[in-house]
Specification:
alpha+beta; 7-stranded mixed beta sheet; 28 helices; about 40% helix; elongated
Length: about 1000
């Protein structure tokens, strides 16, 4: 039967696992079959391959997260890549590669939407095909306005060249204060359109356009023509050329900038977004002058760019860190815009509720396009890495243009930025602001002229960590580098415990104060208490430390804090966290370590409080630029928690749960294998907890309004780790300690088991308080000591019983199964010893509970110690006329004929003497079953009776004779005499103790060791 059950269990387990694996594979196959396919079309080879690599990696990074969480409506999203090689122009014998790629996508007929292309010319060429076959497409980088014009199937997730050209022209005029420009542009759509807009805007601003040069991208002798353009045409007029606009792609830009710098032309150079690509930044690395003097070619070039990471939001910083961690390279704006593009597309697919089947492909594409076209309001915008993502009526993104400048080979924000004003009604004194040039009018748009304040923070020390109170002390340097008006005294620390104390350093003289070339530099030192976990986001098993502040008066329209990338050394190869840990900003003795650090700016929205100049602010809220220096700290310990990938967690939860159930069933039938089952159960329980925790954390961490619930659930998981660990530890004690001991020495009292379990669970409670609730152990001892005193006074009797129980189990005056006599209590068998009392069962089958304190203080007679052999010696009385030798022989024969007594040690007959009425003999013998004591005595007396009867020896009986005299027959007795006489007649004579006709059951008994 046992073998049959074993085989059945094994087969059932294998079958269950097979079904589970088949279901998983089938689920994966079904997901593969019903996957949503997205295409990327862009340069994956050739000179523009760097941009294509950055974008595809960013898209795949987003899709990895998306698919780990189940994809979109239960369907995985797959990316197909197509290489257009930035080949946009038709050749003599064949169409451009971009068109060929578009036709491949059409023929494949799996793709729902396209992300691409990169060059504007490629997007325009391929867009005709997408429009013809109704395939929605979004470009993350093509700026030419023609990409989306007259093509309702094409969207642009970046500003167009019209905005870029106007921005650059106004910047030259109103920020650089220059009135002369020179333009060099390519024939391709991107550069030619940017140059035309810039030229037109410059003339409207009354600037002189000194020269405009154009070159053909497909020119076979392009290098020679560019060299001739610079050396023979630009060099002679360089003094009158003014600001030089290079409206070209990155590859041609590298060639032109190299020629201009080597010709020692020092005119300011400005360019469009192509100069902020990775291809341009690293295009000079192989040149000797660049190697000898890093930044020789690109330093001080101004670039209109869609994104600069030093002004980007927190999501951009997180994306940047994750991208670097996964791909070991620095992302540029193209990667960030590709990341946001796939985010928009995924949200549109989700809202469109597509079926994603071959027969519904055309309908799905139409629904997807319509959903994308509906993202035209800020309320529908998707907050991403590059800001808010939504489109206007022409399907162009509403993104601001930022101006960066290369310093030390890094693109950082220029000290003055131009920001689009949402509505002219936002300012009550708009006309005055335009006159003061605080606001610039560019065509029909108004733009704020915003000062940039480079900000850096260097932490000196993190001390006085009070995690339970979420407070710590921060000692740091803070500096500002800026142009124009900025008052550090008006800074407000958002997360300071006492803001006035933290801000008092700004009211004193700065440590350093310098001013040069209209740039002011100030540095202060601050030491104060700050709140921990001030960010509304959950970091897994971590705490957030740092500083957050904004200006009290200057809004984001007037002031933007920018991370001083160069001053902080963020551009260096050594990570900031590594430097901070090396400098022991957070002492190793604290038990915590800095896991990550990030600097970013975001916005703080505050009520206008009715201030007149903000009366037109939307919803009465005013936005302030807010600077954040954030560090994530974690316990300095190794842990497996949180290491299970999310995509495997559901399978592991199911598998571990099934195995735990099967092991529990198997443990009932295969008790010899419980030890081995224990290890498997511990492993399965750990996997179940880890994977379950990952599922909970991942789901709730994405919901900001569930933050408090997430913290509580994580706390529950922390407690479960300790409690389940304690459970398995007590189980291990049972399986590895108590059960083997019982097999060797007999039953183990429950008090030992319970006391050991009590110690484990008490230790668990202390560990939970110290490590989960993070209370100090000393305060816990003080509190527990006071609590123990109160409880001790209340339950001192029970405490005495507990310690008495411990003494009983240590000294072992009796054990379970022993027959004992405790004090004046009748003899009984010990059936249980627990933490409070000892229970014994009498011969009347009644259970008596004796408190351990009473038992340990009473005289204890143990009839089973040191062995279970005991002596009995009942007394037999016979007539003195019989010879002692004969009587002893008869009695010994009677004992030897009894089957219930032991023959070793041999029974003994002892003649104890004579009294006035009989001779007495002790009949001494041994037995080994005290529970049957009276049955043994009954048999012995029976044998004695038989043998004495055969030997004609009568037991002696004490007799008493009482004579009464009644008197004469006719005499009359008084009533008193009659009553006395009757009482005498009724009186039964009382024999002397020990004198019996039958065997005396009140025998003497004692314990002896068995003779060898």
């Amino acid at each position: 039967m046992k073998k049959f059950f074993t085989e059945t269990l094994v087969r059932g387990t294998i079958l269950l696992l097979a079904v589970f694996l088949v279901a998983s594979c089938n689920s994966s196959f079904q997901q593969e079959k019903d996957s949503i396919h997205i295409a990327f079309a862009g340069p994956l080879s050739g000179e523009g391959a760097a941009a294509g690599r950055l974008m595809t990696r960013a898209i795949q990074l987003y899709l990895n997260h998306l698919n780990e969480r189940g994809g979109i409506n239960g369907k995985k999203v797959q990316l197909s890549t197509f290489d257009d090689q930035n080949d946009c122009l038709d050749h003599a014998n064949q169409p451009a590669t971009a068109k060929q790629v578009a036709n491949q996508i059409v023929e494949d007929n799996q793709v729902l939407a396209v992300i691409g292309h990169w060059y504007s010319s490629c997007s325009i060429a391929a867009g005709e095909i997408y429009k013809k076959y109704h395939i929605p497409a979004i470009t993350p980088g093509s700026e030419n306005i023609k990409v989306t014009q007259d093509n309702e199937w094409y969207f642009r997730n970046i500003y167009n060249s019209n905005a870029s050209g106007q921005f650059l022209a106004n910047y030259v005029k109103k920020v650089f204060r220059q009135n002369t420009v020179t333009i060099i542009h390519e024939s391709a759509d991107y550069g030619s359109y940017l140059a035309s807009v810039f030229e037109e805007t410059s003339r409207k601003l009354d600037m002189e356009v000194k020269r405009v040069w154009k070159f053909e991208n497909a020119d076979q002798n392009l290098d020679d023509h560019l060299r001739q353009l610079v050396n023979q045409e630009l060099v002679p007029i360089r003094k009158e050329a003014g600001v030089i606009l290079l409206a070209v792609q990155a590859q041609e830009g590298v060639k032109l900038v190299k020629l201009i710098k080597e010709a020692e032309i020092t005119n300011p150079i400005i360019a469009g977004s192509s100069f902020s690509e990775d291809t341009f930044q690293h295009g000079f690395d192989q040149f000797p002058l660049e190697k000898a003097n890093p930044g020789f070619y690109i330093n001080d070039i101004y670039v209109a760019t869609p994104l600069i990471f030093d002004t980007a939001n927190q999501q951009a910083q997180k994306f940047r860190d994750e991208y670097q961690q996964v791909y070991q390279e620095e992302p540029d704006w193209s990667a960030a815009y590709a990341y946001d593009t796939i985010a928009i597309l995924a949200e549109a697919i989700k809202r469109a509720n597509l079926e994603a089947k071959p027969e519904t492909r055309s309908l799905d594409r139409k629904k997807l396009r319509d959903t994308l076209a509906s993202f035209t309001k800020s309320e529908d915008a998707i907050l991403g890495v590059t800001g808010y993502n939504y489109f206007d009526d022409q399907r162009d993104a509403q993104k601001a243009v930022s101006l960066g400048v290369y310093k030390n080979r890094n693109s950082v924000s220029a000290l003055t930025q131009l920001q689009v004003m949402r509505s002219p009604n936002d300012m009550s004194d708009l006309a005055d602001a335009v006159k003061r040039e605080d606001v610039l009018q560019i065509n029909d748009k108004y733009m704020y002229k915003t000062n940039v304040v480079y900000t850096g923070i260097e932490l000196r020390e993190i001390s006085d960590l009070e995690i339970p109170k979420l407070i710590c002390t921060l000692d740091f340097y803070i500096w500002f580098r800026f142009q124009g008006k900025f008052e550090p005294q008006q800074i407000q620390f958002v997360n300071a415990v006492d803001p006035k104390e933290a801000e008092k350093s700004f009211k004193e003289k700065p440590i350093t104060y310098k001013s040069k070339d209209n740039i002011t530099y100030r540095i202060y030192r601050v030491k104060s208490r700050f709140k921990i976990d001030f960010l509304p986001e959950y970091a897994y098993k971590q705490h957030v430390l740092g500083i957050r502040f904004h200006h009290r008066d200057l809004t984001r329209n007037n002031l933007i804090y920018v991370t001083d990338v160069l001053g902080l050394g963020l551009s260096e190869e050594t990570p900031l966290v590594k430097r901070m840990n090396k400098n022991q900003v957070l002492s190793v003795t604290s038990g915590w370590t800095i896991d990550n650090a990030r600097f970013f700016q975001d916005t703080a929205k505050k009520s206008s409080l009715g201030e007149p100049k903000y009366l037109n602010a939307p919803q009465g809220l005013v936005e302030y630029s807010q600077f954040n220096a954030v560090m994530w700290i974690m316990k300095d310990e190794f842990t497996f928690r949180g290491k299970i990938p999310y995509q495997y967690s559901y399978h592991l939860v199911a598998l571990s749960g099934i195995l735990i159930f099967l092991l529990a069933l198997a443990g009932r039938k295969f008790k010899p294998f419980l030890k081995y089952f224990w290890f498997l159960q511990v492993l399965c329980a750990a996997v179940l907890l880890m994977s379950g925790e990952v599922i909970v954390v991942t789901h709730l961490a994405e919901r900001a309004n569930w933050y408090s619930y997430l913290i509580s659930l994580i706390l529950i998981f922390d407690i479960l780790w300790w409690v389940i660990g304690a459970f398995f530890l007590t189980t291990a004690a049972e399986r590895f300690v108590w059960t083997p001991l019982e097999q060797q020495i007999g039953a183990i009292p429950n008090i030992i088991r319970h006391f050991f379990a009590l110690l484990i669970y008490l230790s668990t409670i202390i560990a939970i308080v110290v490590f989960v609730y993070e209370r100090t152990f000393t305060s816990l001892l003080a509190t527990s000591g006071m609590l123990a005193m109160i409880i001790g006074l209340a339950v001192k009797i029970n405490i005495a019983n507990i310690f008495s129980g411990m003494v009983i189990n240590i000294e072992r005056p009796f054990r379970i199964g022993d027959w004992v006599r405790v004090g004046a209590f009748e003899e009984a068998e010990v059936i249980d010893i627990n933490w409070r009392a000892t229970r014994v069962q009498t011969r009347a089958n009644a259970v008596v509970s004796l408190s351990n304190s009473v038992a340990i203080e009473s005289a204890i007679t143990n009839f089973y110690y040191p062995t279970n052999v005991f002596w009995l010696w009942p007394t037999v009385y016979v007539h003195p006329k019989h010879s002692p030798e004969r009587v002893k022989k008869v009695l010994l024969d009677a004992l030897l004929s009894a089957n219930t007594i032991l023959k070793d040690p041999a029974p003994v007959i002892i003649f104890t003497g004579l009294n006035e009425w009989a001779a007495s003999y002790w009949v001494a013998f041994c037995a080994d079953d005290y529970e049957r004591k009276y049955y043994i005595l009954a048999e012995v007396w029976h044998r004695i009776w038989i043998h004495l009867e055969r030997a004609a020896i009568q037991p002696a009986v004490r007799r008493q004779e009482i004579q009464f005299f009644r008197g004469e027959e006719n005499s009359q007795m008084s009533f008193a005499e009659e009553d006395f006489f009757n009482s005498l007649l009724e009186e039964t004579p009382q024999p002397r103790k020990g004198v019996t006709y039958l065997p005396d059951m009140n025998s003497h008994d004692s314990k002896v060791k068995r003779r060898p």
